[in-house]
Amino acid sequence: MSRRLEILRASLTKKEALFSQKLSAHMETVKAANGQPLNDKRNGAATLEKWDRQNDALRALDESVAKTLRAIEREEAKIAMVQAVALPGPIKSLIDSGVLTQWRKHPRFFFVTGVDKARIELIDNGQIGHRYLSSITTKEQYAIFRDTFNTLKAQLSDQQEG
């Protein structure tokens, strides 16, 4: 489970707890009216306004819960899309070790940890290519990217030959 999905689920739990708390508080204030008509009481209008404010708060919380549920569904769909892409073993091992990060928007692209902008692309024939290599500004980042790319390319070519 991704970190974002964990955060969304925790947020949903908090929002649902707050919703039930506010709902029970609203029910208690309604019970306090004790079934008496409010139009002839001294604070009847104030009580009705208070109920309206509580209803508005409940409605907003309900919309927030629905929004969080939609975000969880979107996140689960993104995770499923990423997992649907078949990856070669060397790429999977580098992702698991934290050297590569898979781009969720385009699951066939990978970022090298510690390198800005440049990315590795998995081509349909099982080979890899690079993009935005000229965007690397420092020699340290270039060395990291070069070593990772060349090692991965050699591993993939060995895997295809053997």
Please tell me about this protein's structure.
The protein is of the alpha+beta class and 162 residues long. It has 2 domains: 3-84; 89-161, no CATH class. 64% of the residues lie in helices and 9% in strands. It has 4 helices and 4 strands. The chain has helices at 3-32, 44-84, 89-97, 139-161, and strands at residues 100-102, 109-112, 119-122, 128-131. It has a 4-stranded antiparallel beta sheet with strand order 1-2-3-4. A hairpin with a 6-residue loop joins strand 1 (100-102) and strand 2. Helix 1 (3-32) packs antiparallel against helix 2 (44-84). It is rod-shaped and about 90 Å long. The two termini are 34 Å apart. The mean pLDDT is 87.
Shape: rod-shaped
Report the end-to-end length measured between terminal Cα atoms.
Answer: 34 Å
Strand order of the largest sheet: 1-2-3-4
Mean pLDDT: 87
Largest sheet: 4 strands, antiparallel
Number of β-strand runs: 4
Number of domains: 2
Secondary-structure-derived class? alpha+beta
Poorly predicted sequence stretches spanning 5 or more consecutive residues: none
Beta-strand fraction estimate: 5-15%
Quick structural summary:
This protein has 162 residues and is α+β, with helices and mostly antiparallel strands.
Produce the secondary structure layout.
Layout (H helix, E strand, L loop, with lengths): L2 H30 L11 H41 L4 H9 L2 E3 L6 E4 L6 E4 L5 E4 L7 H23 L1
Antiparallel strand pairs: 1-2, 2-3, 3-4
Helix pairs in contact: 1-2
Q: What keywords describe this structure?
A:
4-stranded antiparallel β-sheet, alpha+beta, 64% helix, 162 residues
